[in-house]
Write a structure and sequence with these properties.
Number of strands of chain A: 12
Strand order of the largest sheet of chain B: 8-5-9-10-4-11-12-13-14
Distance between the termini of chain B: 43 Å
Largest interface: A-B, 48 and 62 residues
Helix content of chain A: 25-40%
Number of helices of chain A: 11
Strand order of the largest sheet of chain A: 4-3-2-5-6-1-7-8-9-10
Shape of chain B: globular
Shape of chain A: elongated
CATH topology of the largest domain in chain A: Rossmann fold
Helix content of chain B: 25-40%
Distance between the termini of chain A: 80 Å
CATH superfamily of the largest domain in chain A: P-loop containing nucleotide triphosphate hydrolases
Radius of gyration of chain B: 23 Å
CATH architecture of the largest domain in chain A: 3-Layer(aba) Sandwich
Number of domains of chain A: 2
Oligomer: heterodimer
Structural class of chain A: alpha/beta
Strand content of chain B: 15-25%
Order of helices and strands of chain B: EEHEEHEHEHHEHEHEHEHEHEEEH
Number of strands of chain B: 14
Strand content of chain A: 15-25%
CATH class of the largest domain in chain A: Alpha Beta
Largest sheet of chain B: 9 strands, mixed
Number of helices of chain B: 11
Chain lengths: 389, 361
Amino acid sequence: MADLVCRGLRDGVLEGEYAPALLIKDTLQISLGVHVFNHFLLSLSSNISSGKAQSRGLVVVAFACPPCFYVDLLRSRGIGVASLSNWIRIVDCYSDPLGWKDKLLNSGFSAQLSSKSHDKSSVGDVECLFRDVGDAEKLSSLVFDLGRGLVGPGKGRFSVAIDSASELLRHTSLLSVSSLINNLRSHDQVASLFWLLHSDLHEPRAILSLEYLSSMVAGLEPIASPSTDAQRNHHNHLFQLEQNSRRGKLHMRLKRRNGRVKILFEEFDVEQGGIKFVPVSLGNAIRNDAILPKVQFNLQLTDKERGDRAKVILPFEHQGNGEDIKIYDGRGPIADAPKNIFPTPRLDESASATITTSSNGGKGEIHYFRDSDEEALDTDEDPDDDLDI
Amino acid sequence: MMAATGTFTRNPKSFSHSRHAPPPPGLKIGPNGTPIVSTGIQDLDQLLGGGVPVGSLIMVMEDSEAPHHLLLLRNFMSQGVLHRQPLLYASPAHSPRAFLGTLPAPIPPRTHLHTPSQQQEEDLRIAWQYKKYFGNEQMFVESHRGNHWDFCNEFDLRKSLDRQLLGAAHIDCVNLQDVEDLASLRDRCSAFLAPFARTEEGITCVGRVAIQSFCSPQCRYSNSDWDMLFFIKSLRSMLRSSNAVAMITFTPSVVSSSSVCMRWQHLADTLLSLRTIPDDDKEMAKLLTDYQDMFGLLHIHKVGRLNSQVPVILEATTYSLKVIRRKTLVLERLNQAPVDASGGGSLGGCSGSSSARLLDF
């Protein structure tokens, strides 16, 4: 459930472990990742500002939206309005990511360009302009500085949210982004982090690498799978477009500490006021046949069963225990056999011997019906003895 | 150990020419006369035919969602430390030394009361009338449990290895994030393996190399697939000419192309892969008896044999990973839960929306 993820982000990290990292990925088909990201951002913010979370500050690296968007979002939900600068910092990578405006202004075209980019908005404390997104190391040191500034140099922890890792991947290589995320996760003062990714913009390897580095993956999927019937395609297509612009399914994979993976499905609905999650009953079974091989029944015996099997007296003449050969002909009981043997009327000579074994609490019972009485008593002859070779 | 019957037996090579020198700890003669060392996990040793042949490479394919490969690595490294075998450990973590603090401590050996009964169980119980013709001749039984505590210890995962033992051990740590290019790593490995070069005198000491998550995305060389393949190939050739064993773990999903992944797998002598299992999965709980206890699956793709062309074909290749009483790691065969005869109909009914049955027999 999305609550589980929110709780994971809120609870943060245990001593000596890597910080929980959430990856939100969406596709062109269902591009509501931003809403899901904002939902987690809001829940974490409210936890931080009310003091329930392990982290005491939040650093947002904003690529896709300007910082004022986030400030307005927080204000509209009434989260920590009074003291925003106490617990949040927004790195502005939206206004001038590559420093072009700055270069243009400096090189003398200032008359034409308005200097709007230099205006700090009213919450000047909160923002921090960053002009060099190609350098992931600079970005990470800026994030660390801001975070440390928020929570102090001691044991305090802060959380990090990256608006869109897709934008980051556009400017730098996968290697830098991976090492950035790895450094964030292993840093002493980071409690949790989460980021958004648009999975159809990148190679599968990039997505798999980021999934490898994260501890929780939330993937957005369309509710209905695309219909394959060509005739109804047009209708369905429009209907799906409309549906996918509001509703979708969230497929979450959480890596647990015991090494198992928790897989959850939820449907969500984007409304005016926010986003609503509805847990889905798992009608479709997860395909496990890819993981499991053909599994056999357990044919191995426990020690007790082995002991019981050893105690069963076999109906053959040679018990192999060095005693005299006693020929048992099914007519009467033998001295050491259980007493349950009764003579049956012989139906015909070709009645086959039936041997049944049943273990009732450790005793083996064997009912041995001999083929016929006419055979010589000593049938111990080796039939191969007749051969003259 | 010579059987009375005239079957072909191979004379095991002596450890050293002078018969008075004791064999080095942790080394014994395995199938086909190759010296073998232990992986640290008794069940795994048994599956691999007693242990890992000296000079071979174990490749472990991780699952990107689970840290089970760390368990295998820990046991492997701990076993090496206990047998005083020098160790080279490379990892992409910030401080590889910190990982050494998580190596498990061995459980002191207890007296084994059930070994004689195991011997009996392995003998074929002949229960037919020709038994009188068999005198004292017994089937040849290889005693696995003879002196296994010397060779492979059981480890307690809750306790960590004694600090003094760690301090006295010869362990080199390499941080893979600092590695600029693989040539320097290769030089480091060859410098480490130089003292273990094979000589005429036999084996005096065995070295171990453990490389964790070799193709992590944060390592600088992770884009150059062919360099990584070349490194593994040269490491393997170095191992062949020295008395050492290596275990490398990697994540197949992070490697860029499937052809590189296949080549990587083919470079291994012994290939294992780990899979994770979903949590709270009712379908799987119905299917397997031990679902609650196990936390992952180990699949054995290939078992290495260095001087034989006969392949090893195991009865079952997938095993479940379990930790017994939170202490020891065991591998067990997967067993299907008893299927309720009356429940067959309801099973089919509720999974009507899903496609084919989970397993077909």
